[in-house]
Write a structure and sequence with these properties.
This protein is of the alpha+beta class. The protein has helices at residues 3-22, 26-37, 42-48, 58-94, 113-127, 141-144, 176-185, 226-241, 294-299, 316-324, 337-340; strands at residues 131-132, 138-140, 169-171, 190-199, 211-221, 247-254, 257-266, 283-292, 308-315. Strand 6 and strand 7 form a beta hairpin.
Length: 346
């Protein structure tokens, strides 16, 4: 066997060692492996040259090439492993978490102030024995008007107040239709509160919105009188606003109650002395209420000579504005986090 083969193989081995030492990443090592050991690599070329040797020299030449091939494979694999460990170590160091740093607290969500007020009010009335009833936001004109003693031609049915879906369908203007549906489905006694969203053709400003939220209540039973109405609403108002608030009932008018009244709250901002909020009266209008009109009871098949009841309607936004001192109803719908974060933990 020619000594030239051995010298060429040793030269290849030295060159591979130098190139492996300079290799900076695994792709360069792979290129060295292909150039040296691949199908068209240097060792393959040397192996093909064995056929030119004398027959007696070929076995020794083949063994020598296989020996060098095995050594080169081991050398390349070792360098590949070492470089892989080095790359992994650098990556782990670069991506390491500094456990000595303080944790990053996740921002906490909170209930919306209207949700808080709604849940607080519902809890008060539940403790009084009221059930919660709900109904559709798109109502027929019969449930929204006629069944509540609001006939055709009544000012409340004008398009300037009501959003009509069609001639017979409206976006409900109050949650009173739920009371009618409840009375249709069950005989007295009935004691329910009806929360939900309602709609009016109002231009948005500091105190008006084209949609807002209400809780309307109804109690129908034998022997119900104005004294029951006064007790229930006084209890709710003092539990929600505080036991020391001043309250007064004054006569009013609503088509679906007779007699009707409004409940006023002593001004929370000036303690009754008169201010801009209460328009110097010392009182804030809180809600409308009254004894259920006999025509409403008769309309659902109740005997108005036997059963009586009272009803009321609460504006959720108004209660939230009074309790939290919010000056503009639009703030509830703007999703301003600076405003909403004030209610975290309430």
């Amino acid at each position: 066997m020619s000594s030239g083969l051995s010298e060429r193989l040793e030269a290849i081995q030295r060159e591979v060692a130098r190139e492996l030492e300079r290799a900076a990443d695994l792709s360069e090592i792979e290129a060295i492996r292909v150039r040296t050991l691949g199908r068209k690599g240097l060792l393959t070329t040397e192996a093909k040259s064995i056929g030119k040797l004398a027959a007696e020299d070929r076995p020794a030449a083949g063994d020598l090439i296989n020996q060098f091939k095995s050594e080169l494979e081991s050398t390349i694999a070792e360098r590949e492993r070492a470089l892989g460990e080095s790359v992994l170590a650098r990556r782990l160091q670069a991506e390491a978490e500094d456990v000595t740093l303080p944790g990053r607290r996740r921002g906490l969500g909170t209930r919306h102030p209207l949700t808080i007020v709604t849940e607080d009010l519902l809890a008060i009335f539940r403790r009084m024995g009221f059930d919660v009833a709900r109904g559709p936001e798109v109502e027929t004109t019969w449930y929204n008007f006629e069944a509540l003693n609001i006939p055709e031609g009544h000012p409340a049915r004008e398009e300037m107040d009501t959003i009509y879906v069609s001639d017979e369908l409206v976006l409900r203007t109050h949650t009173s239709p739920i009371q009618i549906r409840t009375m249709e489905e069950q005989p007295p006694p009935v004691r329910v509160v009806c929360p939900g969203r309602v709609f009016r053709s109002d231009t948005p400003d500091a105190s008006h919105s084209p949609y807002f939220h209400q809780i309307e209540g109804l109690w129908v039973e034998e022997g119900i009188a104005m004294s029951h109405l006064k007790w229930a609403l006084t209890e709710y108002a003092r539990e929600f606003f505080g036991s020391d608030v001043e309250l007064r009932f004054r006569p009013s008018y609503f088509p679906f109650t007779e007699p009707s009244a409004e409940l006023d709250l002593g001004c929370l901002f000036c303690a009754g002395e008169g201010c801009r909020v209460c328009k110097q009266t010392g009182w804030l209008e809180l809600l409308g209420c009254g004894m259920v009109h006999p025509a409403v009871l008769e309309g659902v098949g109740y005997d108005s000579e036997r059963y009586t009841g009272f009803a009321w309607g609460i504006g959720i936004e108004r209660h939230a504005m009074l309790k939290y001192g919010v000056p503009d109803i639009r703030m509830f719908f703007e999703n301003d986090l600076r405003f909403l974060q004030q209610f975290v933990g309430r």
